[in-house]
Amino acid sequence: CSFPWKNPAVFQPAIPYSDTYIGQPAYYSSREVKEIGPQAAKIRGSRATGVLLVDGGAFIVYNTAMAQMKWEYRAELRFKALLQTELCQHRMPKQFANAELSAVVFGCGMEPMEGIFSADAHQMHNYFVFDGNVEHFYYLTNDHRGEIILQLLWNHELKSAMDEILSEDLLANKLNWLIENDAMDIAGNPVLFAYTCDMPRIRRFDTALMLHGLTGTIFCFDFQSDTLRRICGPCITIQSIDFDAFERSLCHNTEEPR
């Protein structure tokens, strides 16, 4: 839900009632977040368009459209700090004290994501995506496909079903191994499920493979594959998933009856 009059009053100056609970995903625009009070002055200049709250986590939301985002580095860090202190500690600690803070950037098509990865010395503002302050930073297309993948970020049951299907012909993942992975192929090479386009995770996987002289496989949706081929190095093989088939089989099967 994104209508202010339907969402719980989380960012009003007054502290929410103790029984306030985010049961269904709720989006709050940056204007609503800035109604929090004098603390809002700390996040002036942030490029965030709002915050998506779900049961168990929160996502700072950006929209780069067709352009390249010029992050306001310090303002973005202050935005995250504001959520950690005001939301997670003071306002809704029962639900969000241990919540994970992630970020999502929407863009028109996959091209803006390629631009984020190809930042050079004159575009170091993109380092905000990869410096580890936000562990999970997802790129989603600003269309129906992005909307469907967004559901995978907060619907853990749906995502687990997706990962289980992808793991059918693979070996179990190796925990605390030298390369981050979701599974291993039969030859013992690491596999990463990258269909949510978690950008820092993709870069870590690519970099680790090159450093250790190994090869690996990335699983992604078909409309993401060309961009990931250009982004990733020669150590990675791209395995694409038919998005339309995924939506027909998995998403429709998990819909609640009307």
List the helices and strands and how they pair.
Elements: E1 26-29, H1 30-33, E2 50-54, E3 57-65, H2 73-91, H3 93-96, E4 100-107, H4 111-117, H5 127-130, E5 137-141, H6 144-154, H7 156-166, E6 183-184, E7 190-193, H8 199-212, E8 216-221, H9 222-231, E9 236-241, H10 243-253
Helix pairs in contact: 4-9, 6-7
Q: Can you summarize this structure?
A:
With 258 residues, the protein is of the alpha/beta class. It is 37% helix and 19% strand. It has a five-stranded mixed β-sheet with strand order 1-2-3-4-5.
**Rg (C-alpha, Å):** 19 Å
Residue share in β-strands: 15-25%
Unreliably modeled segments: none
Number of helices: 10
Largest sheet: 5 strands, mixed
Structural class: alpha/beta
Strand order of the biggest β-sheet:
1-2-3-4-5
How do the SSEs run, as a string of H and E?
EHEEHHEHHEHHEEHEHEH
Separation of termini? 19 Å
